[in-house]
Write a structure and sequence with these properties.
heterodimer; A: 157 residues; alpha+beta; Aldehyde Oxidoreductase, domain 3; 4 helices; globular; B: 91 residues; four-stranded mixed β-sheet; 4 strands
Chain lengths: 157, 91
């Protein structure tokens, strides 16, 4: 498998990601770590709860990873891991790892995967604020994402 | 009739104890029409339901894929399990 796609409820360990990206053919390993930040749009954030549809999210990660291989090279290795559940500030929510022969395709593939993941994966964020309030963040509509649905695609806002 | 279970995600978690809603629709109902039935089911459980715009921006999916709005449901089955996916924001 050239693409590893996982939704996990436990912390993501760096050595596990590194092991998945190792191999004598790889001259570049690039790992993007997404973390929970302590501020969003002027509000102090204490924690973020990630709600995930696991089966569909893993399938979407695999599809995005395969697209990255198509675009940037079949020899690439792509690892996508996303946390589910409540995470404190500073915890890792998502990892995108790419191993490749050279750095250029690793940078391009990494950027492609994280940007696509954010707008296509069935994942939702609920921010918990210092004042005790909490809020589900607005996101990107999946209308138009159904395969072969021209009608829905044209209705996309 | 066809029995539909819809799992709730994201901002829809505030309804039906955050799990799922179940209702019946005529066999052959389209996904597009199902979205309306889902709105009615949510409204029955929460008369102050104010998330119609969110529902309009949402899609319905099974464990494999997002369903096409024109797709008809219920061929050869009595009960199906779906999920309602509001706009997403992973990462």
């Amino acid at each position: 498998m050239r693409v590893l796609a996982r939704v996990v409820s436990e912390p993501i360990r760096a050595e596990v990601v590194a092991a998945e990206l190792s191999g004598p053919q790889y001259g570049a390993q690039l790992v993007f770590w997404g973390l929970v930040r302590d501020e969003n749009e002027g509000k102090r954030v204490h924690a973020v709860s990630y709600d995930v549809h696991p089966a569909l999210a893993e399938k979407t990660f695999r599809e995005i990873g395969e697209e990255a291989l198509e675009r940037y090279g079949r020899e690439l290795r792509v690892v996508v891991i996303h946390r589910a559940g409540r995470l404190a500030v500073g915890e890792v929510s998502v990892v995108v790892g790419v191993a490749s022969g050279h750095r250029d395709e690793a940078y391009q593939a990494s950027r492609y995967v994280i940007e696509q993941l954010k707008t296509r994966s069935p994942i939702w964020k609920q921010e918990h604020y210092a004042d005790g309030d909490s809020e589900w963040l607005l996101g990107h509509s999946l209308r138009g994402e159904a395969q072969g649905n021209a009608a829905a695609a044209s209705a996309k806002p | 009739m066809l029995r539909i279970d819809v799992r709730l995600f994201g901002a829809f978690r505030k309804y039906a104890n955050g799990s799922e809603v179940t209702f019946e629709v005529p066999r052959g109902t389209t996904v597009s029409a199902l979205r309306k039935h889902l709105g009615e089911a949510l409204r029955r459980g929460a008369p102050a339901f104010a998330d119609q715009p969110l529902l309009d921006a949402s899609v319905l999916a099974d464990d494999e894929q997002i369903l096409d709005d024109a797709q008809q449901l219920g061929r050869g089955v009595d009960r199906i399990s779906l999920a309602v996916l509001p706009p997403v924001c992973g990462g």
